[in-house]
Each structure stands twice: as structure tokens, then as C-alpha cells.
């Protein structure tokens, strides 16, 4: 993004170590005003540490972070603002709703700290409670609330005093599946309504896809890719991203040839199948004869008991059915192809037997080439 | 392949009832119920028995309760007890909360190495502490006062400190009961989810404000629980007022109960009545704690590994450090040093004479059988070891079965037992001892070690039970169930799964009880007789003869044994055993 | 490792089981049976009685009425006053918390049921090795349970449950403590191992996708009663009633009346009271008659959506929300005040605000009792 306005949150060269272990390495990220950005990755990838550095709950070893107009921390300039000086709101995984206060007092806390008068304090608190649909529970003690309600209190508490940015630390992972989806939709709705800048940490790819304007995929302390959900899903930067977001069939091989707008990839399937040449979408940034991963999404694979014709015939490979699993809205079929196991998503109910011989294929446009 | 278990035969109804599980739990449950309830019922009944002037016959009546308020001494003693308990409660709470906060939440230097020493007074005998402090700060012969006079060239009437007062009782009991508050609060601070504080910081509250509006309110239930326990325990404390207040004209309820239970003026029924007063007050307070304070405890275990926030005190961290060191100095180091110095002199004259020092007093207390007063001390050592070893072992077996019943079975029996386990903790030792005395005085076990053993176990087995229960609650019931599903009977499951899993708790509980029994005074002083003196009774004997040097030697022996036990306890039970 | 075959097709029989908790009927007259070697799942929300049913089979609590038997062994029967202690029932069980004993190694854990059965050491070692290989924990056999990850603990737990070749294998939500990716992997694995050892299994879960993937048959429960029992495909595509269709997967449920009933099990539903002027051809799930109130259930993936009205009778609507889920787009499409949930292919490229047409497929439009 090349916005002319100054970004709301700007991180440059962030570095954080715990003892000898590097938790975050060289993270650069800028978040625009009103944007919803998700830090996504497996546990231990550095996403939570990054968030806690932004919040000021963790000191950093190198780099600089600014929120709004202010530099809140800079290793070089020896600046460190305490969390309470950063104008942020934060929602925690464990809700962190104070059990010795009522819902109202929890939400009003940030306003009290800021010295708001009682009339305005009441108005703003009630407005925030209405936003999360808890106005009827204002005088209830926090211990009497369910998990979902507590997380709403935490949310209201964080938005009530209109901070520059809200930080979410896996806020949905303590909730059960149905409630999680409901809260997820609610947070998106609220965020759009209030227009507040948000940084959201999660390990759940579906949460990230649904909620974000942009996703920052992290692994092993570094950023792997930044992009909007569709781009990240359709054009993953590398095999890790392809595998982490959605399901991917990945094959290792060489880029052998380029013809007619397509690239030819030589894949060694092993076994009786041996080396096969498959056509994939050409990408200019990969040079010929270099090592690549070929990635095809299960929903882009075709399966047939008959021979393919036309374009599909070129990429046709024969394999054996390992099993078919019924997933409700579609059928998932695992097919053994050489040494690889492929997952194919079928939206029609085909009767397939174990060990049955089938042909699988994909359109060249759906084959993604990823550099090694 | 036939893997079947024993041939499958449907059980008939009556065989089903007499399972291993039911038989063991019913028998143990019955024993516990009788042991706990019987003495209290007899105590209650006895409090309505009025002894005639000759001291032979008795009849029913409320006269004892009237005497409580008309007697020359008892009303004052009750007020003194109230005064001492309130004072102790205040001292322990202020010290305990400050120390807990310093150790759990600040960057005061050397916390990890200092912390264990804060708990030492918890294991030592307050009675011995009183003896040591008497030698340190009694107006005439207290070392500190002697040095003070020497330093400023003052005459023998002037002094700096005087512990031979109710204030002295409050001071000594207060510093010795500080770990009780400390343990409650430090655990609560450590278990607290740090995001509760983090969220206050990110919401915009500064450090001081977060501490005052979030941290402190969240640990208030723990502070109140600790304070109540201290109030109750100090009301039942006998040794300290006996040493520091009674000889100087300040009687308390416990010293009065003691005079009514033993000695020339003995009137067991009046003793029972006074015990009832103490018992009722403590039960009321414990009930308040259980019903109103404990349920408000906010800091439950969430099972996540927390990195507690540590507060940077800047230069003030040295003040915090000094405060902690000062506490250890007055509660542990000074008393022990003083005992050691006094014990090395043949006769203590409030003057340190290095050339006179020898180990003779230790040899005397351990091996000198001839003199009567010293024979009591020597016997006391042997008796206490017998009682501590057998008592801890029996109590832990009971504790194991009782914990199992409370936490692994459901129904009426479990709730009743849980209740029965709270009662002895609520009742001060001296009250329970009076109950045991009036119950068993006419049976053959009176004047034997058995009655002491009975008193010890009844009063203290809940401590062991708590040690086991805390582990039992942490391990899933499914661990037991999966053994049953694997084909093991109840008893096999207990032997191969449950007990091995509880081993750390069982051992920690055993050592804790061993320590408690080795220093026990309140029960022993009521229930001992010639030949069944205990270690603490021996100290009491020697203290009565006003032989400070011998008293200190025996006290030192007890203290050293206790310190060794603490060391073992920590090695075995691990660092977190008490603070977790 | 096969046992002597029982002739009876019904291997496990649960007969009119009733269990009260206080004044609650946790299990309300439940009867079912399964054949030897099958994998049956009890599926339902928490509090539906599925776990209570499982615990009754395990003998971890007593029952208030009914009978449970396996083959010719009666586990418990209120009428015959029989209650077999859990350890005598010869059952393998896998718990949600794994329940691996932390003071033993993996091998010791797995050997335990065999030691209890007093089998010789040599044979124990041999069988433990075999089972550990089956669950893929050979390398871990000398590790303490506390050194294992969640997934490995669950494998060890499974090994311990199957090593004695028990009469029954019970699973109490064994995967719900694992995280998403691992859960998906473990359910395929669990099913594979169960297939291999062939022990009759009862599996309890609240996760419908787990049930669909693993089971030979599914029993859907609610409020202590059985709502439907069927093979996974049928539970999903032919739910018995509104409750089942809502609980398993996502469904558009539209209230209406049955206007016409054909002989072939199809009919026409009048949905006028929910969406003005809409009628649709549908398949009838149960004994419905003309004029009955019905719920029409249509799965989001069975509605085709396009920007042009291709096949005449399209329902006009507007895209309110298009949530990109990777392999599909979850759309909310409003039409005459009704909000349709539709799954569309990403290549359709639907955006918020687009005008679209919905087409229902009569084969996948199902009328059920409300």
C-alpha cells in the first residue's frame, strides 16, 4: 500500500530475542488508519511477541514502532513509552475481565483513567455496551458472564475510549466453534462500524481469511508474505504459505520449459510413474531449470474414471484411490500418485472404491509455481 | 485369543454393596467421624456440668457460663485474648502482605534465594521464639537491653524494649504467624493472570493505579483469609502468653484453660466452658471465611504458564530488600543466635562470657537421666519422636482415604467428611485437647502416649488431607477411571495408579505433620502426664525452673531438628510445595 | 486376533436405557444396537445425553432403567438387578484428557491392561511392541507420558485401549483437546487403526465433521433422545427433521406447507408464508401428507448462484455479504426479506451488492417435519 497519509501503526526493523532464541526478526509493517490487519502463523512464529511489542508489554532489541504521530518505542533513539502512554486498546485471549467490578465499571475504566466527567463517561460507556449488545447486563458482575459475554466486555472496554489502534491477541480461541464464528462476524461488523484500526493475532487461517483487509503470514520469526486474503490464497509466496492457508497439493520438481504462455514442470513422482512433465501457469520471476514447488488446490483438481479430453488431457495422471471421506458439503478423495498422496475435492457424489484406478488432472492456469 | 478377565458372573445386590471401595471408605469414615465429633460433643456436655465446692460431685447448670463473666480473672483474660489476637492479626497481615508483594511483584534483589527463609518461622515453635525473645528483650536480663544500658551508661532500671507484656506477645506471635498471611497472598499474586494487569495498562492506567485498583482488590480475599487464620490461631496459642504475659499478671483464655485443666485448681468442666468460648469464636470466623471470603477468590488457576509482571522499584528496591532481611533477622536469625549463645553458658547471667562456653547443657538434656526436671526433657525427646513418626504415618493413611472419599466419591458421605475435616482446623489445639481430655479421662488410654497420639491426629490430619487433596484435584479422575476400564479393581487402581501419582503430596504431608508434631505444645500441655512428656513439654518444664541455659539448649535441639526437617521437606516436595 | 464369532448380528444392545440426574432425564429411553466391528458415533450438543449413554456402557455410573449387553454378557440390567463393575466389562476406553498415567513410560502404560490380565511377560512385551508400531509410537516407548505431545498422548491412550483386544472400544470426545490441523489428521488415523483391529467402537462427539468422516453409522441425539440414526451420507443429505438438518452442517430452513404429494416421494412445497410467491419442487423426507406444515431444508452448496438468470425460474436476490474462505465463498443473499446462505465458487467472483439469481435443485431440496 502506498497511502500518502502517515500510517496509523508503523513498524520498522523489529527484532526481539528471548535469551539465545530469536522470537521476531526484521519485521517491517505499516497499518493504515481503519485497516484490519491479521498476523497469522503457527504457535511460536513470533506473531504474539510482535503484538506485545506494539502494546509495550515487551521490550524490543532493535527497531522502531510508531503509533499515530508518536514514536512509542525505538531501540536506536532509546525511547520507550509504557503501555498506558500509547493510546491503544487490547483484547486478550483469557478475556482479562476484572472479576471485582461490574460490567459497567470494567468498560468505564479507561474513561475514568482519562478523567472523563460522569455524564460523558456514562454516555460513552453505554454506547460501547450497546455496540456489543450488553447494555442490559451493565450492572452484572463479570464473574456471572459466559465466555462469549466476557469477550464482549473486553471488546467494549477496548473501544470505549477510542484508542488509535486495537490489538487482539487470539481473542476467539477460548470460545467453542459455533460461538467463535458468531463472535468473528461480530468483531468484523463492529470494526467496520467504528472504523477503528485493528491488529489481530491468530493461528486460525479461516479467521484470518474472513476478517482481514490484509494478512501478514509469519513463520520462524519472519514475515513470509503480506497481502489481502484472495491474493494470499491464490498466489502464495512460498510452499509454507500455500500449505498453511488452505489445503495444497505440493510437488517438488524443476522448471524445464516455457511454451505458449505456460511453464512446463518436471516432477519426479517416483515408482512406476517416474518423471512427468506437467503444464502450469507461468511466472516470470522464476528462471528456467530452477527448482520449484508445483501447488494445486484440492478444489482445482479434476477426477474422472474416464479419459480426459481437451486441455485436461495434457496434465492427466493416473493414480489409485486411497479413500474417500464425506465432509458434508463435499467429498474429499485421497489418491495415491507415485510417492505422493493427493487430496482432491469433489462436489458431486461419485461412487469410488478403495484402490480403484482413476485419472486426475488440472488446468494449466490452476497450477501455481512457487520458488523453492 | 482369549484375553478375558476373571469369568464374568453377574454380582448379586448384597455382594455389590460390599465392594473393596465401600468397605474401606465406610470404616475409615466412621473412625474419622467418631474421633472428631465425640470429643466436641463431650466438651459441649461437660461445659454444663457444675463442680461442687468440694470438687467431687457435679450437677447440670449454667453456672460455668455465669462464672465466665463474674470471675475475678476470666473476663480480663478474655479481653486480653481479644487484644492479643487483634494485634497479632494486624502485625502478621501488614508484614505478610508487604513481604508477599515484595517477593512476587517487585525486582527487589535476591528474591529467589531470600524467599525460602521467610517461611522458616512457620515451621518453628512460637513458644521457643518467646523464650528466645525473652532473653533478647526482657527489661532486666534481655541482651538487647543490657547492651543498650552498657552503650549509654544507664542504670539497671532503664530499658529499650520490653517483651514481657501483651505487646511482647503480639510482637512474637505476629512475626511467627506472618508466613500464614504470606503464603495466602503470595500464592494468589503468583496465580493471577497477568493479562488482568496488562489490560489495565493498555487501557491507560499507570503502574500505581493498576496496583491499587486492580492488583490489590484481586488479592483482598486472600489477605482476609490469611488474617482470619492468624486471628484464630493466635487466640488458641498457649506458649507465647504463658512465657511472656502470664508471669507478669496478664492472663489469657489459653493460660486460664491450662490452669483449669491441670494443677491444684483443676476444674475440667470450667476448662471445657472456656474452651467452648474459644471454639465458638473460631468456628464463627472460619465459617465467615469459608462462606463469604473463599468463594470470592478471583485468582483461580488457569493452567497457563504466566510470566508475572515485575515492578521496577528503582532505588527503592534496596529498601524492600532491607525490609525483608530485617524480617528474617528478627524472626529467625536473632532468636536462634540468642538461643545458641545462652545454651552454651553453664548459667545464664545476661552476660556473654566466651571462656565459660561449653556443650555441657546439651549433654545434660540428652543424657542426664537422674535429675527429675531433666529426665522430663530427655523423655520428651524420645516421646516426641515416637509420636511424630507414628502420628504422621497414621494421619497420612487416614488423609489418603478421606481425600479419596471427598474427591472421588459422590453423595452424602463425601460432603459430611469434607465438613468434618474443616472442624479440627477451626478448633484451636487447646480446645480440642480439652475435649479429648474430658472424653477419655476415665479410659485406660488416659496418661499414655495413645491419648496424645489421638489428640495429635484428630487435630492435624486435615493438614495432611489438604496436601493430598491439592494434588488429587489437579489430576484428572479419568486417570483412575481408565485403570478400571483396563480391568483393574479398585484396590489395584489405588495401589498402582492413585498412590504413585499422589506420592509427592503424601510425602510432603508426612514431613509437615512430623514437624508439627515435633514442636506441638497446646495439646501436649493438656494431655501429658508423668512419663509421657513431649519435647515442648520438656522445654516448658525447664522454663518453669527458670533455668534459661538448659531451656535454651533443649529449645536449640528442637529447632535444629526442625530446620533439618524443613530442608528435607524442600528437597523432596520441591520449591513450589508451599507457595504454589 | 479375532474372537469367537457371535451369531447374533446385534453385538452391543442398549435397551430402553434411562438415566436420571436429579430431576433431569439425561438419557430418556434410548435403545440401539450395533453389529460387531462397526464404528458408531453418538453425536449431539453438550447435554444431549451422549456422554451419559457412553458412561452407562462403561459402567462408570449406574443406570435407572433398561439393560445393556454385549454378545451374551449382560453388563447391567435394572430389572435383573445386575451391575457389572467397570473392570469386569472388558472394555477399552479413550478419554478426552488422554488419561495417560504420568508416572509410567508409554510402554508401561500400554502394558498395564495385560499385566492386570496376568499375561506372561514375554507375550506382553511382544504385544506392546506390536500395538505401539500400529499407532506409530515405537520410538517413544521408553518416554514418560509427560514428554509426549497431545497427539502422541492420544495415540498412547488408544494403544492402551486396544492392546487387550477388548469386547468394545469407547471414545469420549478424544480429539477435542487437540488443535485444528492435528485433529483433522488424527481422525483419519483413528479410523484407520480401528479398521485394522476391527474392534466394535462407540464414539462420542459434538463435532459433526468428525462424525461424518469416521463413522459407519451416526446416531444424532438431543435432549436425551435419539433424533436420527443413519449412515453419514444420509444423515447429511436426508435429515429426519429440522433439528438434525440444522445440527449437521449448515442449512437454509424455510417454513411452508406441503402443497402436493407425488407417489415417487417427491412433492411441491408452498413457501409463501416465508418468501412471497415461492413454491418449489422437493424430495419428501418422511411420512408427510398434503397440507402438512413442513420445513424445507437446502444446503448452501446445493444452491447455484449466477449473475444472469439462466434457467427461467431463478430467485432474484442481492449479495449482502461475501466472505472469502479460500476454497469457496460464503455468501449471504437477501431476497424478499429472507437471507439465503449460499456457497459459491471463488471464480464466480461475487461481490457485496451484486444482483444475482438463485437456482434450487429439486433433488437436493428436502421437505422435513418441523
Briefly, what is this?
With 580 residues, chain B is an all-alpha fold. Chain B has helices spanning 13-17, 20-46, 63-70, 74-105, 111-118, 120-123, 126-137, 143-152, 166-191, 194-203, 207-235, 239-244, 253-261, 268-293, 317-344, 360-367, 372-408, 412-426, 429-440, 449-474, 477-485, 490-519, 522-527, 535-544, 548-573, 576-579, and strands at residues 49-51, 58-60. Chain B has a domain at 87-248 and 276-351: MetI-like fold.
List the helices and strands and how they pair.
The complex is a heterotrimer of chains A (372), B (580) and C (370).
Chain A: E1 9-18, E2 21-31, E3 36-40, H1 47-55, E4 62-67, E5 70-74, E6 79-80, E7 88-91, H2 103-113, H3 118-131, H4 147-159, E8 165-169, H5 177-194, E9 197-202, H6 205-211, E10 214-219, E11 222-227, H7 229-234, H8 239-244, E12 249-259, E13 262-268, E14 275-281, E15 291-296, E16 302-304, H9 311-314, E17 317-326, E18 331-337, E19 340-346, E20 357-361, E21 368-371
Parallel strand pairs in A: 3-9, 3-10, 7-8, 8-9
Antiparallel strand pairs in A: 1-2, 1-4, 4-5, 5-6, 10-11, 12-13, 12-15, 13-14, 15-21, 16-20, 17-18, 17-20, 18-19
Helix pairs in contact in A: 2-3, 2-4, 3-4
Chain B: H1 13-17, H2 20-46, E1 49-51, E2 58-60, H3 63-70, H4 74-105, H5 111-118, H6 120-123, H7 126-137, H8 143-152, H9 166-191, H10 194-203, H11 207-235, H12 239-244, H13 253-261, H14 268-293, H15 317-344, H16 360-367, H17 372-408, H18 412-426, H19 429-440, H20 449-474, H21 477-485, H22 490-519, H23 522-527, H24 535-544, H25 548-573, H26 576-579
Antiparallel strand pairs in B: 1-2
Chain C: E1 12-21, E2 24-34, E3 39-43, H1 50-58, E4 65-70, E5 73-77, E6 82-83, E7 91-94, H2 106-116, H3 121-135, H4 150-162, E8 168-172, H5 180-197, E9 201-205, H6 208-214, E10 217-222, E11 225-230, H7 232-237, H8 242-247, E12 252-261, E13 266-270, E14 279-284, E15 293-298, E16 303-306, E17 315-324, E18 329-335, E19 338-344, E20 355-360, E21 365-368
Parallel strand pairs in C: 3-9, 3-10, 7-8, 8-9, 14-21
Antiparallel strand pairs in C: 1-2, 1-4, 4-5, 5-6, 10-11, 12-13, 12-15, 13-14, 15-21, 16-20, 17-18, 17-20, 18-19
Helix pairs in contact in C: 2-3, 2-4, 3-4, 4-5
Amino acid at each position: 500500500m502506498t497511502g500518502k497519509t502517515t500510517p496509523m501503526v508503523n513498524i520498522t526493523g523489529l527484532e526481539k530475542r528471548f535469551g539465545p532464541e530469536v522470537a521476531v526478526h526484521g519485521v517491517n509493517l505499516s497499518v493504515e488508519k481503519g485497516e484490519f490487519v491479521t498476523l497469522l502463523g503457527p504457535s511460536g512464529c513470533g506473531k504474539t511477541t510482535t503484538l506485545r511489542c506494539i502494546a509495550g508489554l515487551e521490550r524490543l532489541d532493535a527497531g522502531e514502532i510508531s503509533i499515530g504521530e508518536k514514536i512509542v518505542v525505538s531501540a536506536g533513539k532509546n525511547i520507550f513509552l509504557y503501555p498506558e502512554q500509547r493510546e491503544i486498546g487490547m483484547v486478550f485471549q483469557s478475556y482479562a475481565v476484572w472479576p471485582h467490578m461490574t460490567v459497567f465499571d470494567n468498560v468505564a475504566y479507561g474513561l475514568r483513567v482519562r478523567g472523563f466527567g460522569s455524564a460523558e463517561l456514562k454516555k460513552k460507556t453505554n454506547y460501547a455496551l450497546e455496540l456489543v449488545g450488553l447494555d442490559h447486563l451493565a450492572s452484572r458482575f463479570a464473574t456471572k458472564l459466559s465466555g462469549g459475554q466476557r469477550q464482549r466486555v473486553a471488546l467494549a472496554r477496548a473501544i470505549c475510549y477510542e484508542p488509535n489502534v486495537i490489538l487482539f491477541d487470539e481473542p476467539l480461541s477460548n470460545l467453542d466453534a459455533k460461538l467463535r464464528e458468531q463472535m468473528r462476524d461480530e468483531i468484523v461488523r463492529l470494526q467496520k462500524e467504528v472504523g477503528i484500526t485493528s491488529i489481530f493475532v491468530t493461528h486460525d487461517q479461516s479467521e484470518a481469511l474472513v476478517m482481514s483487509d490484509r494478512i501478514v503470514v509469519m513463520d520462524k520469526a519472519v514475515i513470509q508474505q503480506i497481502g489481502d486474503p484472495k491474493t494470499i490464497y491464490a498466489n502464495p509466496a512460498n510452499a509454507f504459505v500455500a500449505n498453511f492457508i488452505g489445503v495444497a497439493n505440493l510437488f517438488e520438481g524443476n522448471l524445464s520449459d516455457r511454451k505458449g504462455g505456460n511453464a512446463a514442470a518436471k516432477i519426479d513422482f517416483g515408482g512406476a510413474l517416474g518423471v512427468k512433465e506437467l503444464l502450469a501457469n507461468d511466472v516470470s520471476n522464476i528462471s528456467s531449470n530452477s527448482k520449484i514447488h508445483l501447488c494445486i488446490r484440492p478444489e482445482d483438481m479434476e477426477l474422472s474414471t474416464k479419459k480426459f479430453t481437451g486441455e485436461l488431457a495434457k496434465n492427466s495422471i493416473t493414480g489409485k484411490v486411497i479413500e474417500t471421506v464425506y465432509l458434508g458439503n463435499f467429498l474429499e478423495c485421497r489418491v495415491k500418485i507415485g510417492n505422493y498422496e493427493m487430496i482432491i475435492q469433489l462436489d458431486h457424489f461419485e461412487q469410488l472404491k478403495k484402490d480403484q484406478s482413476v485419472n486426475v488432472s488440472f488446468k494449466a492456469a490452476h497450477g501455481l509455481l512457487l520458488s523453492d | 485369543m482369549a484375553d478375558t478377565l476373571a469369568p464374568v458372573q453377574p454380582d448379586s445386590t448384597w455382594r455389590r454393596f460390599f465392594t473393596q471401595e465401600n468397605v474401606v471408605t465406610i470404616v475409615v469414615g466412621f473412625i474419622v467421624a467418631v474421633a472428631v465429633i465425640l470429643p466436641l460433643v463431650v466438651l459441649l456436655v461437660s461445659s454444663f456440668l457444675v463442680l461442687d465446692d468440694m470438687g467431687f460431685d457435679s450437677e447440670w447448670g449454667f453456672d460455668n457460663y455465669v462464672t465466665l463473666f463474674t470471675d475475678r480473672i476470666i473476663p480480663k483474660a478474655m479481653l486480653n485474648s481479644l487484644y492479643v489476637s487483634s494485634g497479632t492479626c494486624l502485625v502478621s497481615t501488614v508484614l505478610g502482605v508487604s513481604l508477599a508483594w515484595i517477593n512476587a511483584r517487585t525486582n527487589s534483589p535476591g528474591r529467589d534465594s531470600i524467599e525460602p527463609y521467610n517461611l522458616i518461622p512457620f515451621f518453628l515453635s512460637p513458644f521457643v521464639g518467646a523464650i528466645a525473645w525473652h532473653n533478647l528483650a526482657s527489661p532486666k536480663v534481655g541482651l538487647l537491653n543490657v547492651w543498650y544500658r552498657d552503650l549509654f551508661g544507664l542504670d539497671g532500671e532503664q530499658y529499650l524494649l520490653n517483651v514481657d507484656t501483651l505487646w511482647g506477645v503480639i510482637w512474637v506471635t505476629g512475626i511467627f504467624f506472618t508466613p500464614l498471611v504470606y503464603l495466602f497472598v503470595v500464592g494468589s499474586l503468583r496465580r493471577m493472570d497477568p493479562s488482568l494487569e496488562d489490560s489495565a495498562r493498555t487501557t491507560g492506567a499507570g503502574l500505581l493505579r493498576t496496583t491499587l485498583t486492580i492488583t490489590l482488590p484481586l488479592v483482598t480475599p486472600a489477605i482476609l483469609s490469611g488474617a482470619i487464620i492468624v486471628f484464630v490461631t493466635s487466640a488458641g496459642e498457649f506458649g507465647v502468653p504463658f512465657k511472656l504475659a502470664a508471669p507478669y499478671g496478664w492472663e489469657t483464655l489459653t493460660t486460664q484453660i491450662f490452669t483449669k485443666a491441670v494443677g491444684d485448681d483443676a476444674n475440667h468442666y470450667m476448662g471445657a466452658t472456656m474452651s467452648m468460648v474459644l471454639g465458638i469464636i473460631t468456628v464463627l470466623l472460619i465459617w465467615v471465611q469459608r462462606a463469604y471470603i473463599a468463594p470470592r477468590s478471583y485468582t483461580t488457576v488457569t493452567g497457563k504458564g504466566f510470566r508475572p509482571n515485575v515492578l521496577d522499584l528503582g532505588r527503592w528496591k534496596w529498601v524492600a530488600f532491607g525490609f525483608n532481611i530485617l524480617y528474617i533477622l528478627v524472626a529467625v536469625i536473632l532468636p536462634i543466635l540468642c538461643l545458641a549463645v545462652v545454651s552454651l553458658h553453664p548459667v545464664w547471667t545476661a552476660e556473654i562470657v566466651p571462656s565459660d562456653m561449653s556443650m555441657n547443657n546439651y549433654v545434660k538434656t540428652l543424657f542426664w537421666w537422674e535429675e527429675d526436671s531433666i529426665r522430663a526433657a530427655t523423655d520428651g525427646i524420645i516421646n516426641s519422636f515416637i509420636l511424630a513418626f507414628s502420628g504422621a504415618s497414621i494421619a497420612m493413611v487416614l488423609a489418603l482415604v478421606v481425600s479419596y472419599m471427598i474427591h472421588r466419591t459422590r453423595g452424602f458421605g463425601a460432603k459430611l467428611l469434607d465438613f468434618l475435616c474443616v472442624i479440627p482446623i477451626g478448633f484451636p489445639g487447646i480446645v480440642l485437647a480439652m475435649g479429648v481430655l474430658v472424653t477419655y479421662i476415665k479410659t485406660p488410654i488416659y496418661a499414655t502416649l495413645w491419648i496424645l497420639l489421638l489428640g495429635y491426629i484428630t487435630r492435624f490430619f486435615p493438614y495432611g488431607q489438604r496436601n493430598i487433596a491439592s494434588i488429587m484435584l489437579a489430576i484428572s479422575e479419568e486417570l483412575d477411571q481408565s485403570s478400571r476400564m483396563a480391568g483393574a479393581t479398585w484396590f489395584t487402581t489405588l495401589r498402582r495408579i492413585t498412590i504413585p501419582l499422589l506420592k509427592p503430596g503424601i510425602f510432603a504431608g508426612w514431613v509437615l505433620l512430623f514437624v508439627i508434631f515435633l514442636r506441638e505444645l497446646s495439646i501436649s500441655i493438656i494431655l501429658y502426664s508423668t512419663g509421657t512428656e513431649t519435647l515442648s513439654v520438656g522445654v516448658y518444664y525447664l522454663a518453669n525452673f527458670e533455668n534459661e541455659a538448659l531451656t535454651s539448649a533443649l529449645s536449640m535441639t528442637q529447632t535444629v531438628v526442625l530446620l533439618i526437617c524443613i530442608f528435607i521437606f524442600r528437597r523432596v516436595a520441591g520449591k513450589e510445595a508451599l507457595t504454589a | 486376533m479375532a474372537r469367537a464369532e457371535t451369531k447374533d448380528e446385534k453385538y452391543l444392545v442398549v435397551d430402553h436405557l434411562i438415566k436420571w440426574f436429579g430431576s433431569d432425564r439425561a438419557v430418556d429411553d434410548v435403545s440401539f444396537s450395533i453389529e460387531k466391528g462397526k464404528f458408531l458415533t453418538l453425536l449431539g450438543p453438550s447435554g444431549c445425553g451422549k456422554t451419559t449413554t457412553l458412561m452407562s456402557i462403561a459402567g462408570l455410573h449406574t443406570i435407572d432403567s433398561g439393560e445393556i449387553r454385549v454378545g451374551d454378557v449382560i453388563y447391567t440390567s435394572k430389572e435383573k438387578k445386575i451391575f457389572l463393575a467397570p473392570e469386569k466389562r472388558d472394555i477399552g476406553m479413550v478419554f478426552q484428557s488422554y488419561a495417560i498415567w504420568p508416572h509410567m513410560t508409554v510402554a508401561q502404560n500400554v502394558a498395564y491392561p495385560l499385566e492386570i490380565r496376568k499375561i506372561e511377560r514375554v507375550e506382553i512385551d511382544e504385544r506392546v511392541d506390536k500395538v505401539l508400531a500400529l499407532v506409530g509410537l515405537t520410538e517413544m516407548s521408553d518416554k514418560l507420558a509427560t514428554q509426549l505431545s497431545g497427539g502422541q498422548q492420544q495415540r498412547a491412550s488408544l494403544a492402551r485401549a486396544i492392546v487387550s483386544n477388548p469386547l468394545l472400544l469407547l471414545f469420549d470426545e478424544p480429539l477435542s483437546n487437540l488443535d485444528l490441523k492435528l485433529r483433522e489428521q488424527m481422525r483419519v488415523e483413528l479410523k484407520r487403526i480401528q479398521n485394522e483391529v476391527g474392534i466394535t467402537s462407540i464414539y462420542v462427539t459434538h463435532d459433526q465433521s468428525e462424525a461424518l468422516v469416521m463413522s459407519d453409522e451416526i446416531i444424532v441425539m438431543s435432549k436425551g433422545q435419539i433424533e436420527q440414526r443413519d449412515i453419514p451420507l444420509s444423515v447429511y443429505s436426508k435429515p429426519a427433521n429440522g433439528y438434525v438438518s440444522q445440527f449437521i452442517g449448515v442449512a437454509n430452513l424455510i417454513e411452508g406447507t406441503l402443497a402436493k404429494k407425488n407417489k415417487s416421494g417427491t412433492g411441491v412445497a408452498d413457501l409463501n408464508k416465508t418468501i412471497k410467491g415461492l413454491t418449489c419442487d422437493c424430495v419428501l423426507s418422511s411420512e408427510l401428507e398434503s397440507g402438512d406444515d413442513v420445513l424445507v431444508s437446502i444446503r448452501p452448496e446445493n444452491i447455484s448462484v449466477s449473475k444472469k438468470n439462466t434457467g427461467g425460474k431463478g430467485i432474484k436476490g442481492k449479495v449482502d455479504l461475501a466472505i472469502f474462505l479460500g476454497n469457496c465463498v460464503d455468501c449471504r443473499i437477501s431476497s424478499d426479506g429472507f437471507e439465503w446462505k449460499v456457497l459459491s465458487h471463488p471464480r464466480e467472483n461475487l461481490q457485496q451488492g451484486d444482483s444475482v439469481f438463485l437456482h434450487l435443485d429439486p433433488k437436493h431440496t428436502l421437505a422435513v417435519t418441523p
